[in-house]
Write a structure and sequence with these properties.
This protein is an all-alpha fold. The chain has helices spanning 2-6, 10-23, 28-40, 44-57, 62-75, 78-91, 96-108, 112-125, 130-142, 146-159, 164-176, 180-193, 198-210, 214-227, 232-244, 253-264, 272-284, 288-304, 309-323.
Length: 335
Amino acid sequence: SRRLIDAGQASQAIEMWEPILAQEPENAEFHFQMARAAQAADKKQLAITHYLEATKLDPQNAAVFYQFGAFLFKMGNEGAAEKNLRIAFELDPESTEIRTTLGALLMNTKQGREGLPLLESVKEQLPGDANVRFNLAVGLKAMDQKERARDELMVAVNLDPLHLRARFELGLILAQLEQFDAAAEQFSKIVEVDGTRLSAWTNLVRAYSRNQRHADALKTLRSARIKLPRNAMVAAELAWMLATVPDEQLRNGAEAEQIAVQLCQGPGATMPRSFDIWAASLAELQDFDGAVEKAQQALLLFDETPGDPQLRLDIEHRLQIYLQEKPYRTQPGSN
C-alpha cells in the first residue's frame, strides 16, 4: 500500500484494501491503511470513515490518533483535530511528531501558553532540525513575539538553506520589523530558487519600495514578468510603477499605457484597478482628459460590482488630481 501511495497510485491502493477489509472488517490496521490511502487520493469522507473505525477498534494506537488528528488539522477542523492529537499525546507523550503537531495546533488556536512549551521541548530534543525551528517560529509569531520568531527562522534557514517556507516567513517578519534590506535578501533568495512564487516576487518588490529602492523594485518586476508572463497582477504592478514611481528617470508612461490597455482588453476588463492604472499612465503622458475618463470608468465598475472600498476612495482622490491636470505620484516608501 505504501509503495502504491508513494508512486502516486492511491486509487489502486484503495482497490487493494477493499476486498481485504471485506474479509477482515474488524482489523484496525487494515482500516488505518485504507484511511491513509483514501487521504492520499483526496477522498476525505472515505478517509474519515476508516480513521474513525481504526480508532474504535484500536483505542491504544497513538499513531492512528496522530495521523487522524494531523489529517483533520490540514482540513481545518481544528476542534476534532485537537481531540485526536490530545489522545495521541496521552498515549505517546515522548513522540516529537505528536508534540510538534499538537503544539502547532494549540498556537494556531490561541492556546500559546500550552502550545509553546510543547514546541520548545521538541527544539531541546532536536536542536538541529530546521522544521522544528520553523514550527516554533510560526508559533512565536502567532503570539506576536516577532524578534524571537525571527531568530528561530534565521537558525532554520542556516540549517536548511532550501527551506523556502522558513525564508518566506523570515522575510515577512523582517519587513514587519522594518528591516527591509534584510527582508529583500530573503525574498530574493526564494525567487532565485523558484521563480514561479508570486508571493515572493510581490513581497520583494514591496520591500524594495518601502526602502525607496525604486530601481531595484522596477528591475524585480521586469524579472517577475519574464518568469510569469501571463500573470496579470505582475503586469499591473509593473505598469503602475512605470506610471507613478517618484523617480522621473524610471517612469515610462508609454510602456505603462501599453500594458494597461492589454489588461483592460483582457483579464482586467471588469476590474476597476486596471482602468485606474490606465488613467495614471495617461496622466503621466499629460493626457489629463483621457486620465479623467478612465478614472471615471473605473468608478463606474464599482457600481456594477462593489469591490474594495479603499480602492474606490483612492481612485476618487486620484480623479481630483487629474482634474487639476496633475499626474499622480506614489508617496516615497509606499508599496
